[in-house]
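User: Show me a protein chain along with its predicted structure.
Assistant: Here is one chain, sequence first, then structure tokens.
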Amino acid sequence: AAILEEGLKYGAFRLAMRNNAEARCHLDAVLVGALIAMGFALIEDVEYSIFGNFYTLIRAVLPLHAFFGTITGYYYGKAKAAGSMKYHVLSLAVPIFGHTIYDMWIVAIKRILDAAGVAAETLTEEELLALPYGEYLEPLGYVAIATMVVFFILIVMTFRKISQWSRNEELQESIVAQ
């Protein structure tokens, strides 16, 4: 899912940035990336809410699509400013890697519950632990929570950096071809 989702967002981002005369600096690319990702997240959240998925609540707490879109914009801006292909690769590879790490724990928990054919909300803790591979649910839950905390910290750090860029326009790197 991470490759498909991040690839679609990256394609939309590249289309939006192509021949965009108004995107002049690094911060502009970051904002375009975040806005495209937020649009994607809105579509995905509507889909999840229609199907009544429990994971919609988790997704609402962490704006990871916006975060990964911001990372795409950051590295794309670096690529345009530096003229380096490695930043173009990073603008797609870093969000795919982060998305994979985030999804991995939640998907593992969901697979254990789906294999047992039960909904987690209907079982007691003892019944959950008695499921096949149930002994892995608790550690997976802790790792999922730790991953979310780490991503939350990264989101705060990233948006603080963006806030610094927006206050210091003279320090922003130009991405317009000279």
